[in-house]
Amino acid sequence: MAAGTEKLSEKMVHPAVKPLSDLIGTWKGEGEGFFPTISSFNYSEELQFTHSPNKPVIAYSQKTWNLKSGQPMHSESGYWRPKPDGTIEVVIAQSTGLVEVQKGTYDMKEGVVKLKSELVGNASKVKEITRVFKVENCELSYAVEMATSLTDLQPHLTASLKKQALGCHLITGDITTYTTSQAHFLTNVCVCLHFTRSMILNVNCKIKLYFCNNTRFRFPIFHLL
Ligand code: HEM
Fold first, then answer.
1. Model confidence pTM above 0.90
2. Is pLDDT of 117 > 60?
3. Residue of 28, 30, 32, 38 best suited for mutating to test ligand 1, as the one with most atoms within 8 Å of CB
4. Nearest Cα residue to atom 10 of ligand 1
5. Are strands 112-121 and 99-107 parallel, antiparallel or unpaired?
6. Which pLDDT does position 35 carry in this prediction?
7. Ligand 1 atom 38 nearest Cα
8. If 27 and its partner were Cys, which of 125, 161, 208, 220 is the partner (CB 3.0–4.6 Å)?
9. Hey, is 36 helix, strand or coil?
10. Mean pLDDT of the chain
């Protein structure tokens, strides 16, 4: 099997976590923040879901940086506890000191997890937080809304992240060594990175190929080197 195509085997995932196993891994991307009372801002983010097979829980952590300056911004970590009935409980501790207990549902056929705060603690003004995560086409996107003592539930964050290959690589070569039909195949499957045919067919263009470790979209991903 080509490196990076491995799926987490049955033994590597607790049964309770199996429906959400597409999430496990490292995701990187960018987001935008806004709220009626603040200036909007852009950030980069690294988010990780990790799992020990003997525990019915996924550990979650994320860090963000100011997109322009690279300065660290918000970070948070916690635990996701999916139940067999499609409900899920999430606890999160934020770098600001705020803590959340979130409850909600997951539907991995739709690739969606919806959360609403049952408890927000140690917060000066936040009253409620909702989070919606969506996994589609090798992409994890989320939207966070919050209500404060002055403002009703309004969007605060949206972000979109790509999964980082577990173990990558494979072909590092000259694209011109592919036959036309192979190149056509490449064009067809490069949905994850939105490559165009002209980019793929660039003469002497080197590529690196790896696979998105996602059960529903097991497309190869190509990186120009
Ligand atoms: C659920 C997670 C989060 C909560 C509950 C939260 C909460 C808040 C609150 C209550 C405010 C003040 C709003 C106001 O003054 O009316 C705020 C502002 C802000 N938040 Fe968040 N935040 C969260 C996540 C993030 C993240 C991930 C980032 C950065 C990537 C971020 C960056 C900011 C910035 C830059 C401001 C404006 C600060 C200022 O202008 O003083 N927040 N947030």
1. no
2. yes
3. 38
4. 126
5. antiparallel
6. 98
7. 38
8. 161
9. coil
10. 78
Measured from the CB, is residue 163 less than 6 Å from ligand 1?
A: no
Interval between CA 117 and ligand 1 midpoint (Å)? 16
What is the SS3 assignment for 67?
Answer: coil
Residue 10's pLDDT is what?
A: 58
122 lines ligand 1 (CB under 6 A): no
User: Looking at the DSSP assignment, which residues form a beta bridge with residue 81?
Assistant: 89
Q: Where are the strands (E) in 52-138, listed by range? A: 58-66, 72-82, 87-94, 99-107, 112-121, 126-136
Q: Could you tell me the domains of the chain?
A: 10-163 (2.40.128.20), 172-224 (no CATH)
Asked whether the predicted pLDDT for residue 174 surpasses 50, the reply is: no
CA-CA distances (angstroms) from residue 79 to 86, 89, 141, 155, 162?
A: 16, 8, 18, 23, 21
